[in-house]
Amino acid sequence: MSKPLSDHDRKKQISVRGLAGVENVADLKLNFNRHLHFTLVKDRNVATRRDYYFALANTVRDHLIGRWIRTQQHYYEKDPKRVYYISLEFYMGRTLQNTMVNLALENACDEATYQVNKPHLIYCKWFLLSMCYLWFSACFLDSMASLGLAAYGYGIRYEFGIFNQKIVNGWQVEEADDWLRYGNPWEKARPEYMRPVQFYGRTEHHSDGVKWVDTQVVLALPYDTPIPGYRNNVVNTMRLWSAKAPCDFNLKDFNVGGYIQAVLDRNLAENISRVLYPNDNFFEGKELRLKQEYFVVSATLQDIIRRFKVSKFGSREVVRTDFNKLPDKVKFPASCSACAFVKLLLSVCRTNCSLAWDICVRTCAYTNHTVLPEALERWPVDLFAHLLPRHLEIVYEINRRHLENVAAKFPGDHDRMCRMSLIEEGGQKRINMAHLCIVGSHAVNGVAQIHSDILTATIFKDFYEMEPHKFQNKTNGITPRRWLVMCNPGLAEVIAERIGEDFIRDLDQLQGLRKYVNDEAFIRDVAKVKQENKLKFSVHLEEHYKVKINPNSMFDIQVKRIHEYKRQLLNCLHIITFYNRIKKEPNKQWTPRTVMIGGKAAPGYHTAKMIIRMITAIGEVVNNDPVVGDRLKVIFLENYRVTLAERAIPAADLSQQISTAGTEASGTGNMKFMLNGALTIGTMDGANVEMAEEAGEDNIFIFGMRVDDVDALDMRGYHAEEYYKRLPELKQAIDQIAGGFFSPKQPDMFKEIVNMLMHHDRFKVFADYEDYMKCQEKVNALYKNPKEWTKKVIHNIAGCGKFSSDRTIAQYAREIWGMEPTLEKLPAPDDTL
Fold it and tell me: What is the pTM of this model?
């Protein structure tokens, strides 16, 4: 956490936290006082942290607005190709500090608040307003701005974000995340760009075309948030849509006493942007999820068409009308976009069907993020017909043309046609959205090399054989601005002292650290920063979880969504086995561990909630066993989110990335831990494969089956009982779980989990248990040698260059979007053009 600068330090400029800015102190101080005055109606001495936060946020925003306007003027004048990134969720994290880092204002803000005799003000940015919106999506927006790309993020402005997780008696309880209750100083409502979105209704076919009539209309109200690039004066826009009813309520009903009916229609319409991740175990939840997807896509596509039609600055064309040129100016992802885009081109732009489809394919690109069949969307045709009847007709027409192409290339292969159809005929008819995305795109990519290989070899094999030129790979990445400079400034400073600060913009320069692997001073500095981070996090853990932490223990962390394929259960089996070993040999010198597991279970995912309960139950037993003491502690990190990640990741010694090989698309948490000096224990899955290549396989703890091994096991049959009978420590752990050792008041509590592991485990936890335990013994042995451990840490940090989101976005830009990134700075608002 930042500390008030001493008189000597305030005269220095620490580059990583903001070289420029000292000359801005006077202006910042003046603006800060002005905003504080308008924020408060009482005496300043009774101001809350929230008051100070909003005053400081508004002060920084003032410095951002001019750059934001200048950037949009630049785009209007130059008319570059624009890329549109659509996501149903953005996890942006702490906007204030990220903005200060990217604008090089952090030191100046600390100085300005120090000079108003309120040194504690600089802490306010750590406590308030976490904008919790997909993590890599936020990284991508940061990189797009930092690379000077004309990019726009689009999503939904949820009234309630992803739920706040409370652990009550060991169980997950979901509470509403009312993140807008105090307002949001970073957003700007843009009602002038409100767009209508239609649902339900029916279609009428006339000689002059098809009309979608009797629809229910919901208005999409945009809110714009600035996304600053890293010290290049580029500020892009994230536009989030809020659902509004066309009329607030029925005044006639209200006047005759129908108070509920008066606002019912409004509430039903506005439910679309009410909450992130509705429970889709029920029809209403499924319908709402499809509504959300179409809502954001329809509003965004209308906005894209509006922006395209605006002529280039200085052009004699009042409005662009040649939509055949649209792919030369626009790129966006496929999803519901394909059928929605075709519908828009047909109805609004008056193009013919063949031209509309050609424009769609040349404009859209599809990024796949999962290989799990249940995660690939398949919408029931009945639901689609009810909610989007015109779009269903378009999907059928797309499928007809697609199957004609398949039949022409593979004549007589009816099985292939069935596999490649956009409509799944078996049982309830469903629309396979992944197939629609592939057919409607000019490029298809996975997000790690192993993931892309699996796509072309298995689930999309037929499509790859038909159009191999479409398929490529773009390994995910993370932004070093947030995930190093901002969350781990101590490590960033140590690195900058050796190789300079340019690595923040060009992460490949971290390779220069390899020459310091045996440098005693650098080894000491890296280890010191890690220990300081652990001490800070220990204080946080003891305060929030009331568990005494040994800061010299190994901080062993697994934080991610709770899911069977992530295999938190394998981690649990290691904890239990380690606990049993300590109990068996209490006098042995064990490597102490503090195991932390965090993540949220989807509200309707019963098994995931049971996994959380088992983790907390294990912690209750282990943490209160006097024989074990501080040699093993187990903590479930409640309500894991961006702000908690920024504390936990810099403090981690060991990062657990232990999914079954072939199930994780990429992962980005693994990259964040690697960049912050944690060693990885993991399977050859997702981006772990490339991490091992970059850091050297000797510097990462790899265990378990490879993808080929998993396939071979599937062929001969996986029988969990064989491992249970053969491995005594595994049998002991499972028997303890089944027998109620960790749930003495309710011995049968975890029998469902045991039954799943023994008879229905798709992710083969037992098959990797033995190798996992052996690998953990190697981890323990190395941790006892701090110097050698830190050398491997340095190898890992030095190998992180590939995993910058700047590299990922540059590849997307050049190889899919047809755009060229630039590091050129735009003029600042006070510079002459």
Answer: 0.92
